[in-house]
Amino acid sequence: MSSVNWHEVRDALTQLSDRELQLRLWLSDGSGGSDVSSFAEAVEQLFTDTGLSCELKDNGTGLGAEVDELFRLMEQEILKVNTQSGPLHTINDPAMVNVRSIAFRLLERLPRTT
After folding, report:
1. Which residue in 23, 32, 45, 111 has its CB near the most CB atoms, within 10 A?
2. Is 106 helix (H, G, I), strand (E, B) or coil?
3. Structural domain boundaries of the chain?
């Protein structure tokens, strides 16, 4: 199996799949100790922090061609999201519909034991 941190992959995909979670995290200012995140942080966590990008490039995830293709599709769809007008615009960007859908599909396909 790969050296990908699947727990972190799952966390990032959860954030990228859930509009309500995005609203809570990406619009948070951290006051009162509330959690804060952003689209860029979620993407960085998914592909870089976890080691996923390297695995996709080198050997694949080890979870099959369908999962690998969905991750590659996710990379392409992320590039379509307008991130230049603030977090609310990013959340409401039409391209996020596809990102959320792909993230959800990936969560359904990841084994719980990874």
Report:
1. 45
2. helix
3. 6-108
